[in-house]
Amino acid sequence: MYNLLIADDESNIRLGIKAMIEREFPGEMNIFLAGDGLMALDIMNREQIDLLITDIKMPRMNGIELIRTLQDADEKPILIILSGYDDFEYTKAAIKCKVKDYLLKPVNRNELFQTVRSSMEDMEKTKSLVQQELEEEQLRQIQYILLNPLLSKERIKEICGESKLEAKSGHYFIAAMNQGRNLFEKAEQVLKKEILFLDQKDRTVILTEDQTVLDMLKQHIPEAEIGCSGQKTDFAEIREAYLEAAEASKYSFVHPRHSFIDYKTVTSKPAADMLPIEEIKKIKNMLGTIREQEIKSLLLKVLDHERITAYSIDYLESIHHEINRIIYEPFFERFGEESKAAFKKLSHMEDLYSFRDFYHYFHETQELILRLHEYMKQLKSISTEQTYMEQALAFIGENYQKDLNLAVVSNHISLNYSYFSHVFKENTGQNFVDYLKKVRIENSKRLLKDPDLKIFEVSDRVGYKNPKQFARVFRELEGISPKEFREAAGISAAKEQT
């Protein structure tokens, strides 16, 4: 509904325009009438007028004076001039005052309707733009409040007032979903009127006055897991509402089949009085032993779902922290970058909520701990049985001239590739490639002393099909070329035709 003011000193014209507009735009216009410019100003001081149709010649204050008076107003109506005089001076004055249109009397109804309809379209666009700018400003202010925990409630209230952030129904809720950006895009398509944004942890945050819209969201997005704050009436509590929603959303991790969790249903959960620290330490001490079943049993006890769900979510978060501190961190410190490459999951274990749910977390934790267990068993076995390394080095010594790599050698002695890589470097002080180069070049030096062998033949016999590559590696290790080595050894180069 728009507010239209018709200002004209002739009553029959005012009423005639009013009747035409009411017939053409039924129920769309709330119409006010004024007999001159001063009456029109009085009405505009009392009412928010969206569209003004004014005559030029009126007593006390004419139409041009009226619209000039309105030029400094913060919110001006759309202006349409009526005149019985086709006078260019009036037209120029109207153009200076940014008038929408200039209509001559007697009014042509089609021209009038077209102008009014065009004005309504302009008002809709303006209204939409203003609303969009307001919503964007509200969203910026909400995010500012949430990112600044030291803001006082008084200051939050001021910010909300400045951005016209208020609940028309008198109350509001905040909801949060943990499933990231993909879910945010889906929620945007379903919830058109609510304020939505992604927080720093990629949670979809929703501000709504009607909690039932969350049921609608669930109907359209069945996979959504929603945590909702308690009902709030004061926007000074918006940060508390957000923290409640974020906290409630965490519980979907341990209750993945519960699609809606209200904050008030989880606040009563007690904090655990004791963490299973001793059990976690025992697991760490058993790694690499023959007690795999005991490791599994202890892990089931540490991550007992029934016990975990009896307490607040802080209990699971603390257990997760202790598993990282007691088991993963010491392992990483001991074995360094090689363990990081061998156990890629190890670098992703810090964030509990990077897993889909508790069951996914338990499965991945158990799998990783058992892999660490096997890794350490292998290391212990190798450290006590040097025959593995002796077999590996003997195999290299016998087959260095072939196309060798770490996988071939580890398969030959029946050891895991990653384990063997670590053990090989630990025993030789070199990685496999550098060790193989050294073996080949040492053997080439012996062969180069045979004057009957050409350099390219020596290259081939030690595993280099390309003599240039052989020469490059030889120079890299010995500082001189194969030819210079022969000359230094007093071997005649007369037969060399490489």
From TrEMBL:
The modification 4-aspartylphosphate is found at residue 55. It is found in: Cytoplasm. Residues 390-488 form the HTH araC/xylS-type domain. PANTHER family: HISTIDINE KINASE-RELATED, TRANSCRIPTIONAL REGULATORY PROTEIN HPTR. SMART domains: HTH_ARAC (SM00342), REC (SM00448). InterPro entries: CheY-like_superfamily (IPR011006), Homeodomain-like_sf (IPR009057), HptR (IPR051552), HTH_AraC (IPR018060), HTH_AraC-typ_CS (IPR018062), Sig_transdc_resp-reg_receiver (IPR001789), Tscrpt_reg_AraC-type_HTH (IPR020449). Coiled coil: none annotated. This is AraC family transcriptional regulator. SUPFAM superfamilies: CheY-like, Homeodomain-like. One of its GO terms (cellular component) is cytoplasm. Transmembrane segments: none annotated. It comes from Metabacillus indicus (Bacillus indicus). One of its GO terms (biological process) is phosphorelay signal transduction system. Keywords: Cytoplasm, DNA-binding, Phosphoprotein, Transcription, Transcription regulation, Two-component regulatory system.
